[in-house]
Design goal:
The structure holds two protein chains of two kinds. Chain A is α+β, with helices and mostly antiparallel strands. Helix content of chain A is 38%, strand content 21%. Chain A folds into two domains: 1-54; 60-206. Chain B has one domain. The chains are: A alpha+beta, B mainly alpha.
Chain lengths: 211, 255
């Protein structure tokens, strides 16, 4: 029953939409290409900044941002693959920085950078991205700025594994005033990262040829 | 927005000085010169039933207020508010020009999807721009920069079509300026009350030299937390609207 006029009423608007979509797509692809290198560079600089806060740059001589490996451990590190940056000096392992995720933050996951020395001792922990409540859950950034330093030198035996939680749960770690969920999530994620490291130390350093 | 009755008057600072047909409104009870163009009568406050055009305008100011809401999330510091204001001032008029052209050329039936496509494309480009040149600041906007596309389309849809392109451009500039000033006022108030500082994180916008611009007005341990949280944005906006209505009422009783 479609008359030619009806057909035109469907075809023309559709064609117009398609044309708009194509023009926009082409424009965005071009712009994405222009900005791609800068964005990648920014992301690397952002990781590097956190890495430098954990490990002094003069203690290694490779480029950890390219010397990476991806690991997957659904039970310890979550379903998504996790990036690990390897730090070496003269080819010998100095540290591994694992970009693990604390999935159970108060307002969504927290992304961490956990640096571990050979042998399983913690070098330090940085929170690289989070969405915690300003003023409460983000205390590690300002009010309790030293809180993350507490992790330095710890391992799965120091404190013992069952005390790797906040004080309220019978552990060794202080919570923030007014926020328990965030520190609990961070401590748990760090512990799991250490547990993963313990079983995979060799693999972490060897997987994928260093470039 | 449960805090506000649906057809109270709305403040958009761009409209404070010069009444523009679409965003300004009169305080109920104000007995100034009620030109039919810029007064919104609260139903019930007057004897006669509001005409449909008055209701439409009230509806459209409510919608504009709603369109402002997602933007409130980026107003917790001056720097974030400033950066977002610049983006709004750049994207909004550009989008209006494009949408105006679309409306001219295209079938009514596809204006809405086409508008969404165009504005989505624009904010995507803006997001890429932020990630390339203002990485940290862009990351702090989160989902609210993409959401700007929705706001633009909503505001565009509820307006009566402008007579010509120049008019549309001027009007969109005025609305964008209103949004920008609102954001700046909120950012100023919330950062001052919530953190006791001003311009914190200016380095993310202007480069590292600007980190010195931060002004610590008073030192607080936690700040007034509520101001930093989303409810603080709504409370600040409510106060801003109240202040605007109050001055409007004073002006009209004086004259």
């Amino acid at each position: 029953m479609a008359t030619p006029a009806d057909k035109r009423n469907i075809v023309m608007p559709t064609a117009a939409l398609v044309v708009i979509a194509v023009v926009l797509t082409v424009g965005l692809v071009i712009f994405a290409n222009v900005t791609r290198d800068r964005i990648a560079h920014n992301q690397q600089a952002w990781i590097k900044q956190h890495l430098d806060a954990l490990v002094p740059p003069e203690s290694y001589d490779n480029d950890p941002l390219t010397d990476t490996t991806e690991v997957t451990a659904p039970d310890l590190l979550g379903a998504a693959p996790v990036v690990a940056y390897r730090l070496r000096k003269d080819g010998l392992p100095v540290a591994v920085a694992i970009r693990s995720v604390a999935p159970d933050g108060y307002r969504g996951p927290l992304e961490l950078l956990v640096a571990i020395a050979p042998g399983g001792q913690l070098i330090g922990v940085q929170v690289i991205r989070h969405n915690e409540t300003p003023g409460l859950g983000d205390a590690f950034e300002n009010r309790d700025a030293g809180w993350l330093d507490r992790f330095r030198g710890l391992s799965l035996t120091q404190p013992p594994q069952q005390r790797w939680t906040v004080r309220r749960d019978g552990g060794d770690f202080d919570a923030f005033t007014g926020a328990t969920i965030t520190p609990r999530a961070i401590v748990k994620a760090v512990r799991r990262t250490l547990e993963f490291y313990q079983g995979n130390e060799d693999r972490l350093y060897q997987d994928g040829k260093p470039r | 927005m449960s805090t506000r009755p649906p057809n109270d008057s709305i403040v958009t600072p761009g409209a404070t000085g010069t009444p523009s047909s679409n965003i300004s409104s009169e305080t109920p009870g104000a007995t100034g010169t009620p030109s039919s163009n810029d007064s919104i009568v609260t139903p019930g406050a007057t004897g006669k039933a509001p005409s449909s055009s008055v209701r439409d305008r009230a509806f459209s100011s409510t919608l504009q207020l709603l369109a402002l809401c997602p933007l409130l999330a980026v107003s917790d510091t001056v720097v974030k508010a400033l950066a977002f204001s610049v983006l709004v001032l750049a994207i909004f008029p550009l989008a209006t020009l494009l949408l105006n052209t679309i409306r001219r050329w295209l079938d009514d039936a596809i204006v809405l999807p086409a508008s969404l496509l165009v504005t989505a494309g624009l904010v995507t480009a803006a997001e890429l721009f932020m990630r390339a040149w203002f990485h940290d600041l862009g990351a702090s906007f989160g989902v609210f920069l993409p959401l700007l596309a929705v706001n633009i389309v909503v505001i565009d849809q509820i307006q009566t079509p402008a007579a010509d392109r120049g008019m549309a451009l001027i009007r969109s500039l005025r609305i964008a300026l209103g949004i920008a000033l609102t954001l700046m006022a909120l950012g100023f108030a919330r950062e001052l009350v919530g953190r006791g500082s001003l311009l914190s994180g200016a380095g993310a916008l202007l480069g590292h030299w600007a980190d010195r611009l931060e002004v610590k007005v008073f030192s607080v341990d936690m700040g007034f937390l509520l101001a930093m949280l989303p409810p603080g944005a709504f409370i600040s906006l409510g106060l801003l609207i109240a202040a605007r209505n109050w001055t409007a009422a004073r002006h009209s009783t004086k004259s």
